[in-house]
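pinging the channel bc i need a second pair of eyes. not urgent but kinda urgent?? the chain im working w is below, pasted from the shared doc
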Amino acid sequence: MRIVKEEKKSFSIQKAVPYIVLGVLVIVAVLAVVFALRGTSEPNESVVEKPDSEYRNYYSSTQIARGGDALNDVSIYDVNVTQEKDDLVIELQFSYNYSSTEGNIVQTKLVPTYELYALPQPHRLCLNLENVTQWEFTGKTSWLDYEMLQGIFVAQPTYESSDNPTVIFHLTDDCAFRVEEDEGTLRIFIRQVETEKQGCYHVLLNGLSEYASYKEVRALGLTPTLCEDANNTLLISEGFATEEDAQSLINEANEVIASFLPGKSAFIQYLEPETLPVFPEDLQMQEIENMPVLYRDGSVQKAEVLEVNANVLASSPAGDSILCYSPVYSLDMATGESIYSEILYLSNETDTYEKLVDLEFAMILYAQYSPDGRYVGFLDYNSETSETSLYCYDLQLQQLLHISEEEFGTFVYDFAWDPSCTALYAVTLNEDGTMCIRSYAFESPDEQHVTVLHDLYSSEGMVGATMDSIFYADTDSAGENAAIYRMDKLTGESEYICDGERFVIDPTESLLAAETPDGFKIIDIDTKEVIAHLDEAVNASDFRFSANGNKLFLVVDTGDTTNTYPSDVYIYDVEDKEFSFCFSTAWIDLEWSLEANCLLVNTTYYTQTGYIPVTYRIRL
């Protein structure tokens, strides 16, 4: 198993990792966790509305304070914390969302409808807001000056209350509270209440994102809590006097979550008073290793973890290295926007990593080694410009070539290597909006590397090559009736092969596999004979030949949205001329392994900081 470590950055505010970290013990505004606090342990809503704590005009921790006015589409744009005599004062300010898009802040004159209530140890005061669709405030180091406040984070709403987030204030003790509304500013006054303190056993679960999606999780009575690292969050139960008492809830929770929280299980921690739970260092790795990746032989099964924080893009023909990417997040200091990018690595079987090139790419869509293993080509997609650029890296000379900059076009749909490894071919978009097939010759005596080989009507299909032919997909002049053609390299003449747009050619240049309107077919290139055929119900998500051409894997989307594993994987044996079912999975991004009879499945795992890529190896 290999873990790719993301390079250290001087910035930590991330778009795909939307929470703010301001140091080891700095209070965090967690903005990406999908959950709310309206489970079975919410306060009793039949309590009297008049404050009845030991302090005049203050609500007790068993009450709910309600107020505000009906506003629409507003944002929390600032949160401030101060101390006034015996009270910790938290002040929230709201603005209209349209104002942030226009570059100015328009504060609301009223505050949105709210409920304010407390949760037991670990003590939390929860502010549930209606119709607040954004929160733009960040954590402040000054919050650490207040001993009673342990942390603040925002919990996004459940699916039942799509615009009702909850701001959670972690406190060291029980409290009484009161609320003031003033010209669009909400002030919460929190006063510490001395209570008897004792340690308890708690049931914990790493399931915050699922908390929003499943009523069954909320029905367990677990509620979100910040961890002592002021970074991670967990679901936590109320306290139990003994570990045995907590164990009964463990059993119930694990039974409930088994079907929709694969790989996860509840656990017990003992917490002293005024402490927050510890997020176990190895918890996420345990969950990744225990994740059921496939369904085979009537049961869900785990698989070997190959890469963590990385996905495999391609394997070399010789089977001695793989190309993978790892995500990187940074901050644009000029605009304040977070930036997602990817770094490419070469990895071999001895767990050695080598950065392919000292550059970060926007998003790698597809990569392919040349047949001799000297080059690796890849398509990089820029979401801001919608451009897809073609790059080629020479592993022998250790040089990167940006082919799209050499009059090749920045809208490349697919590319394929010539078997001679001296050229590649691609479907590209011209400046006038028309499409064509271009070739790039690596060794050109006149330095004219790029040649337009064939104009296309309207194709975004694949391209392939043998020693004497180029294969491509195109439509008719009306942009309909897509078909696959074979073009002679010498004469430029094309002939029809079959209907369809997506296809691959095996490395031996004898077979073409294609998704056609009447099913998935394996076709003999020379005779055009269909030697294998799956019926028209097949919806191919992906299909690839192995490096030696003796097998092809096919991923079929069953379309069953109720199935946890809706993708069926088949293997076609070229010698036996038969398809055989292998397993079902939830994923469609597969690659052949360096090892024989193994497939690699690229997946993702949700962490407290967002999704990270993970690759598993499945033995056939």
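so The two ends are 19 Å apart (CA to CA). and Residues 5-48 have pLDDT under 50 and may be disordered. — does that match what u expected or am i reading it wrong
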